[in-house]
Predict the structure.
Amino acid sequence: MTPRDRVLTTLQHREPDIVPWGEHYIDFNVYEDILGRQSFVHAKFRETRALWEGRRDEIVASYKRDLIELADALGMDMIVAEIMPPADGSAQSMEEVDDDTYRDANGNLYRVSSATHDLMPYRMNPDAYASLTLEDVLAQIDEVDRNGVPRPDESCWEVVRHVVKERKQTHFIATFWEDFTWPAFGQTDEDFFLNLATRPEMYEAIAELNGKKAIAGLRYAAEQGVDAVITPGDLGSSTGALASPEIYKKYVLPWHKMYVEEAHRLGLVIIKHCCGMVWDFVEDFVSAGYDAYEGIQASAGMDMKLLKERVGGRLTLWGGVTNENLIYGSPQQVTADAHYAIQWGAPGGGFIYGASHSLAVGTKPENLLAMKEARERWGTYPIQGPD
C-alpha cells in the first residue's frame, strides 16, 4: 500500500498493511534533530522574527523542503501543510522592550516563552480593545450572509500547493482550517471565559457567526486539493471540560454538524483536534460526523482502550504516545505507550499512530526513534493482541 492508501483504508475502518503514522504539528527541534540542519518550520519566535525581517521566502522554502523530507525520514503517511502569511509584506514587527519582551502598535506586551519559544501575550492594553456587542455580531452575520468571507491571498497557499503537487499521489495531505468552540469573546482568556459565564444572551449569535464564517471558507481549502482539514478548537483542559458541556451541545454542536456536512460535500475528510479530558464530548464528535479525533491525551484520562470500546468503528482515533514521555521520559516508556496504543487502537482499522498532542519542543531524539521503531515492530497487521 502507499502511505495515502494506508490512511484512506483505516479511515474506512478497515485494516491496512501497517498502521499509518501522522502528526498534526511538529516543532522545529524535531526537524533539526532528524534532518541535521536549521529549519523554520514551527520555529516559534525565530520564525516570527525572520518574518519581521522580510525573510518570508526563506521561511516558505524551508516549509516546502522540510515537511516532505521529514515525512520521508520518519516514514510518515500523512503530511500537514499549513497556510502561510501573505507575501505582501504586511507582517508588522513589534518594538523590542528587552531581550524577551515586545510591544505591538496597540501597546500590548508579549514575551518569549522559555518553555515553548513562542511569543506569547503578557500584558494586554485594555484601552486598545473594544468589547463586542450583540449589534456588532448581528452586523457581522449579515456581512457573511451577503458577501461570504474573504478569500486568503493566493500566496498563502504556496506550501499547501507545493506539498499537494509533490506528494498527493503517495501521501495523505491535510491542512488546518478555522474552528469554533465556546460562543464567547474577550481580549484575554480570562475575559473570554468570564464573558462566557456572564453573557448568555450572546451565545446564539456568536455561535451562528463563528459557524457561518468557518463554513463559508471551507471551499478555499478544498480548492487546493488537500484530502483533509484539521479543526483545532479545544474543549477540554487536563481535568475536564473548559465550560459547561450543555452550552456546547445546545449552541455549538448544531453548527459543527453543518460544518462537517459542508466539508464532506466538498470531498474533504474532517479531523477534530481536541486535547484534554473530553469524555463529555466524544459522542458529540461521532454525532457531528467527524471522521477522526486527534489529540488523545492519555495523561488527561483519555485511554485508548476505553475509547476504542466506546467509539471504535464510528470514529477514527489518532494518537497514542504521550507527550510527557516523549519529552521527559525514556525510550522504554515511549515503547510501552506505543505498544499499548497499537494493541488496543489498531485492530479493525480506524487508528492513526501519533503523539498524544504533537511532536513538541523538548521531544528527545532517542524517544522519537523509539516511537518509530515501535510502530515498525508492532504496527504490521494482523495486530498482536494484548499480552
In short: The chain is about 45% helix and 10% strand. Residues 215 and 324 are 35 Å apart (CA to CA). Residues 245-265 form the longest helix (21 residues). The chain has a mean pLDDT of 96.
